[in-house]
Structures
1.
Amino acid sequence: QVQLVQSGAEVKRPGSSVKVSCKTSGYNFINYGIGWVRQAPGQGLEWMGGILPIVDRPNYARRFRGRVTITADKPTTTASMELTSLTSEDTALYYCARAGIPNYTPGRDYFDYWGQGALVIVSS
Amino acid sequence: QSVLTQPPSVSAAPGQTVTISCSGSGSNFESDDVSWYQQVPGTAPKLLIYDNTKRPSGIPDRFSGSKSGTSATLDITGLQTGDGADYYCATWDTSLSDVLFGGGTKVTVL
């Protein structure tokens, strides 16, 4: 069965960086995009970007360009998202999600499987 | 700032029907499909509807989606207490090359 298991909670200082991983299993990793979506406390969902491993060229949401890096490691079938220059406004749950259509730009279709979320708290 | 507009909340008694609307501008709705997600508090979102009207395996037919022009709708019939959750619409905005999520609608089962 398809599974996306994310790394654990992190507490970071303002100005630092965080890297969240998403270990996948149960499907052909390289052919399905992985997207990243975050949710601030009590708020809605926000798209950050994604990557299709077989192409290995990420696409980023405009508001995060320059601050986010998304990668895919094929041997370990793990996707990662690194966010830099953290502020308190980056405190959120960060989700990875699998694109529903193979070989398609992540985000252009839908997300059929989601990770459990990784809480990132930014605090001095 | 979301450009997909959903009502903040809807409520109904068990067995009744709720309708959640999702409206957006022409560039994002007319050319791309809409998906819907259910999020029970404390859990990850779950895909309910994709390609405007399709249900993934395991989603009951009490959940149905439609789309017309710059608006999409999620209907939940035969409301059950377990349907109490937040619901989000989403689509791809071709002009921004971004995924857009609606602000979410909280469904309360009275």
2.
Amino acid sequence: ETGVTQSPTHLIKTRGQQVTLRCSSQSGHNTVSWYQQALGQGPQFIFQYYREEENGRGNFPPRFSGLQFPNYSSELNVNALELDDSALYLCASSLRGAVDEQYFGPGTRLTVT
Amino acid sequence: ILNVEQSPQSLHVQEGDSTNFTCSFPSSNFYALHWYRWETAKSPEALFVMTLNGDEKKKGRISATLNTKEGYSYLYIKGSQPEDSATYLCAFRMDSNYQLIWGAGTKLIIKP
């Protein structure tokens, strides 16, 4: 059973640029959630995808967008990067059901300068 | 605004001692409460998913209780070991909304 993987591990971007972060779900999972974690805070929910459709969104602007592919891997895209977007971005996959236990990847550390 | 609070923010415990910490969450529209352990440089690891008032779950030396009517959960660690050093996070799920609302975590440091 393959765990959740994310790429890249670290990334440095300049304000105004665009970034794409990638996530491969655990085998057999059909749901992926993306989180942003700023230093000293808990993860903040960005959005969730279930079977390639967005299925819930947190309080993030439209420049945060995502995709889920038929193999249930996923991308998080952020346009017009701002300094405050510097954070750890986590993805978590799960099998939609009553419990919905989420399995996390190691995260991508994004620094915006 | 829904809020999940964890206390204390950090905790230093002598090896061998037992400890516990708290997660407070909204008491209305409860669906589930998740506990995770997050070690430095690793991925968050699921410990428990609790759904019923009065639930008690146990995994080795770690256990958790749940009170949905008053909106709190306790995590207990018995006989702390150095490998228990991590940040422990709880996350609240409301109704059938799949969004998890997270606390900021309790950072536990075990002193040998």
